[in-house]
Amino acid sequence: MLENCQSAQERWGGVSEIIDRWLKERQELIVDFCGITTSVDTFENIEEDGRAANLKDFCQILVDYVSAGHFEVYEQLMKEGQDFNDKQALREAANLYSCIDDTTEKLLDFNDKYLETDDLETLEDDLSKVGQFLETRFEAEDRMIEVLHVAHKDQVM
């Protein structure tokens, strides 16, 4: 009964906090990605343990970010769209999710590859692809936030 009495602001204010925290994680991911891509040319000069640690740290942040999206953020966004009965937004979100899901597979493949190998010969090319996957993903995620959360801002107030 108490749950039914909550205002929309009380109910959906937490979604904004989840999104804000997740976008902060995105910033950390981008900073680490930039750091690792700018240092890839000098990886030969970094001791092997340092290389592995930098790459491992980036992979962990990447997996954490991807996981938070799938198991926390997208779920909340879809629930918001369903609760507002926004069929058009849910259809668009399904297409966006398909795009995001495709990048998830490729990003996790990168993670798996570099957790299992010390061979960094293809790292530069692989990082270039990761950058493209991240760009595609971020655009789709931003659009999903727009159609499923920001679009209902006036209804929440």
Could you outline the blueprint of secondary structure elements for this entry?
Layout: H1 2-5, H2 8-39, H3 48-83, H4 87-116, H5 123-148, H6 153-156
Helix pairs in contact: 2-3, 3-4, 3-5, 4-5
Task: Please tell me about this protein's structure.
It is a single chain. By secondary structure, the protein is mainly alpha-helical. The protein has a single domain (9-156), classed as Regulator of RNA polymerase sigma(70) subunit, domain 4 (Four Helix Bundle (Hemerythrin (Met), subunit A)), CATH 1.20.120.1370. Helices cover 84% and strands 0% of the residues. The protein has helices at 2-5, 8-39, 48-83, 87-116, 123-148, 153-156. The relative contact order is 0.14. Residues 1-12 have low confidence and may be disordered.
Defining traits:
157 residues, Four Helix Bundle (Hemerythrin (Met), subunit A)
Quick summary:
The protein has 157 residues and is an all-alpha fold.
CATH level 1 class label: Mainly Alpha
Which value, in Å, is the CA radius of gyration?
Answer: 19 Å
Number of structural domains? 1
Distance between the termini: 21 Å
Low-confidence stretches: 1-12
Structural class determined from secondary elements: mainly alpha
Assign the CATH topology. Four Helix Bundle (Hemerythrin (Met), subunit A)
Overall body shape: elongated
CATH architecture: Up-down Bundle
Helix content: over 70%
Number of helices: 6
Percentage of residues in DSSP E strands: under 5%
* CATH homologous superfamily descriptor: Regulator of RNA polymerase sigma(70) subunit, domain 4
Could you tell me the number of beta strands? 0
Mean pLDDT: 84
Mind summarizing the main beta sheet?
none
